[in-house]
Amino acid sequence: MTRNGGDAAPARRAGSPGLRLAAGRGGQPSPHGPEPQDRHLPHDRNQAILEAAKQVGALLKRKGHAFALAGSVAAYAHGGSENLQHDADFCVRPADAEEVADTLREGGLTVHAPPEDWLIKAKCFDQDVDIIFELAHQPVSLEMLERAEELPVDSVRMPVLSPTDLLWSLVGAFSEHHCDFGAVLPVARALREKVDWDRVRRDCGDEPMPAAFFFLLERLNVISPPKERP
Fold first, then answer.
1. Whole-number Å distance between alpha carbons of 201 and 108
2. How far is CA 70 from the centre of its chain?
3. Residue scoring higher pLDDT (163 or 3)
4. pTM for the structure as a whole
5. What is the CB-side half-sphere exposure of residue 34 using CA atoms within 13 A?
6. Among residues 228, 93, 102, 88, which one has the least CA distance to residue 156?
7. Cβ atoms 220, 214 nearer than 8 A
8. Would you call 9 exposed, middle or buried from its count of C-beta atoms within 10 A (0-12, 13-18, 19+)?
């Protein structure tokens, strides 16, 4: 994920100051077990990303963490395209990020803190996994996680961001520095009937890049123009 809120977004400000996150012992594999290997996986990149999402989701469920699947794998779980983009994305609250990192290390994954301070990164089956605690420039909240829907991701059921929260996280992250409409358009098309577009518009406010994307969706008949107020 190139920015919080999906596979389409730029880096910005912090989510959890002072977070003690890194792949302990200088980024070496966890002493609790070997990192999962990709040699047992099919060569298909999409399937490898799905397997990584299933592995991480199962680890987080087993430990009882509050989390939700995000990004292109969440769109897939809601019935979107199987053409996954770059990685598997999960969102957690900022206060839970350190415990989640420990859980992943205990599960044999290598975890590190990148320069961007709104996420941590892990490797699973040689695929990137982003653990995000800020979506569309807003901290992940318990309310958002409680709105998540439990859905199957292939054979593993896990919490998945609601369609409305998922689209907001993608569209709300658009800015002058990152506005990859092409990455989000297929998701909007696939999930349009499941999304509360009025809420997405309201939560995005009057920002110009989201407004331009809504205009594009209207011209393509993906969504209807907002109703005029009397």
1. 41
2. 3
3. 163
4. 0.81
5. 5
6. 88
7. no
8. buried
